[in-house]
C-alpha cells in the first residue's frame, strides 16, 4: 500500500514544539550576565590605565599622603553590607513577601547612597588638597577608575528606585522578578569591582 | 520550601545561611587586607602578593556565596563566558603593563 509519508497536518510549521516553551527569564538574566562581563572588560582597561599611569604624579600630592585608610574601610563596609542586604531582599522576594523585600531594598539603597556620599566627599577633599582629576596622569587615572565605579553605583541607586515603583504598581510579576535578578547581579558585581579598587588603588597605593 | 525554589536558567537562588557565611568570610578577608597594611605587618613585594591573593579569594567568595556560581550543567554558559572574560582581562592588564614597561625602558635615551 502507501509507503509514502502522509502529508503534515495543516498547522505544521516545522518548528519543534518544545522550543516554544522558552525560558524567557533565564535568557534575559543570561544576557544581562554577558553585559556585566563586558563591563568587567571596561573596568579592566581602566585598571590597566591606572597600572601604567598610577605613578606619574608630576609633582602633585601622592595618594599615600592624602588617603585615610580608616575612611576607605568604612566605605568598603557600607558597600559589602549593601551586597548582603540585597541578597536578603532576594530571599524575601522568593517568599513573595513584598513588605520584607521593600525594607531590605531600602536598607540596600541607604547603604549604597552612604558609600557614594563618602566617595564624593573624598573626591572633594582630594581636589581641595591639590589632587584634582586634571592635576596629573596619576590623578586622572585615579578619578577615571573610582569615578566610573561611583557612576555605576549611582545608576544602581536610580534603578533601585525605578524597580520599587514598578513592583509597587504591578506586584511581583515574572517580569519584575527577572528585573530584580538583573539588578542583584549588577549590585553584587559592583562590590566585586570595589574589592579590586580598594586592593589595587588604595592598599597597594599606600604601601 | 520546594515551591519557592524555582530556578531560572542562568540565575540560581541562595539561602540565608549561604549569604551569612559569604558576608562573614568577606569581613574576615577585608579586615585581613586592611590590617596588614594599616599595622605595616608586611611591606614591599610580599605585601603586594598577600593583598592580591586576598582580593582574589574575596572575589571567589562573592562569586560563590552572593552570585551562586557553581559547576552545575545549567550554568555551563555562565561559566564559559566568565572564563573567556578572565582570559581577556589578563591579556589586557598584563599586556598593557608589559608593553608600557618596555616602552619606558626603550625611551630612556643614553642609558
Overview of the structural elements:
Chain A: The chain crosses the membrane at residues 32-59, 71-91, 97-116, 151-168, 180-204. Chain A: One of its GO terms (biological process) is aerobic electron transport chain. Chain A: Residues 30-206 form the Heme-copper oxidase subunit III family profile domain. Chain A: It is a multi-pass membrane protein. The complex is a heterodimer of chains A (207) and B (111). Helices cover 77% and strands 0% of the residues of chain A. Chain A is mainly alpha-helical and 207 residues long. The N and C termini of chain A lie far apart (89 Å). Chain B is mostly helical. Chain B is flat. Chains A and B meet through helix 1, helix 3 and helix 6 of A and helix 1, helix 2 and helix 3 of B.
Descriptors for this entry?
heterodimer; A: 207 residues; mainly alpha; Four Helix Bundle (Hemerythrin (Met), subunit A); B: 111 residues; 2 domains; 3 helices; 69% helix; 0% strand; disordered N terminus; Cyt_c_oxidase_su4_prok (chain B); Cyt_o_ubiqinol_oxidase_su4 (chain B); Cytochrome bo(3) ubiquinol oxidase subunit 4 (chain B); proton transmembrane transporter activity (chain B)
